[in-house]
Amino acid sequence: MHIPFCSIVPPYLLRRLAKQGAPEFLSAARAAREALGHVESFHSARSQPVPGVPEGVRQAKPGPSNRGIYDAGGSEILPGRLVRKEGEAATDDPAVDEAYDGLGHTHRLYADVFGRNSIDGRGLPLDATVHFGKLYDNAFWNGRQMVFGDGDGEVFERFTRSLSVIGHELAHGVTQYSAALAYRNQAGALNESMSDVFGALVEQYVNNQSAAEASWLIGEGLFTAQVEGSALRSMKAPGTAYDDDVLGKDPQPDSMDTYVKTSADNGGVHINSGIPNRAFYLVAETLGGNAWDSPGRIWYEALTGGTLPPTATFRVFARATAASAVELFGSGSAEHDAVLKAWETVKVKL
């Protein structure tokens, strides 16, 4: 089984930042160039084998989390020095403690709501490395663990600050161990969208926020005060997360009417994910209450039910969510109707 390098900051955003020549953004531009080179080197290299769950293996009853936080100390050597393990007290390092807490919150969502035993369904230890690289402008899942940069301090803050980012990257692991969606074109956009969905749900579950109360922002708190923007993406209103002189305008479409055809970013995986993202938000908005309940269950069953091919299109996934809604709540139910209406709104035909 193989998995690509899955990072939270899209290459198109790093590319824009890397071109900046203004004195106040020199460090940010240099950091973006380094992060972009990292992304491109991973994408151009042959994916390395990573463990997966054999088909047909039933997951065990959820157990306690088993976390390990490592410090790379500014190097790019993984995993680094172990600085906090499961059950140990908080440290005086915010990045260490934010990573530790974020892993725990994510584990709790999957265990409490979906009955899943960690990311792989079999109690996988959750490891993360902080202080990766120097002013590193990204966070990523490498098929085995989470990795966080500290940001450049001019455009990006440290990446452990955002719980939705932590939940997002760990959800790539859930996809890896279940549907194994390809990281290209619409399947890749679905892969990214699944991570946004469950990243948002982790944040909402921890804060006990209803669908109406939630911000539906991914990466809120990552930008410094110099940036005109609230987050990397908005699930509620794709294309509105930022509009900044340096970073440009959020390019995400909110329906198939403005679907972006591109060969960049593996076929637009971070751009076109706005379409299924909005579909999930619309289901949650229509049903009300907590998004991790009915909407979350429908999406989780569609992702992990074993029916999705690795090259699933938006249409294939939409049909899977409709089938999950019928199986869980019945044909013609409010949940089923909400799913059908959401995909119709974003112009994905079933």
**How far apart are the first and last residues' alpha carbons, in Å?**
30 Å
Instruction: Briefly note the structural class of the backbone.
Output: alpha+beta
Assembly type of the chains comes to single chain
Please give the largest β-sheet: 6 strands, mixed
Count of individual helical segments: 10
The level of helicity is 40-55%
Structure summary, number of beta strands:
10
Question: What is the mean pLDDT?
Answer: 93
Shape: globular
Order of the strands making up the biggest sheet: 1-5-6-4-2-3
Radius of gyration: 19 Å
* Parts with pLDDT < 50 across at least 5 consecutive residues: 43-50, 53-58
Notable characteristics:
single chain, 350 residues, alpha+beta, six-stranded mixed beta sheet, two-stranded antiparallel ribbon, 9% strand
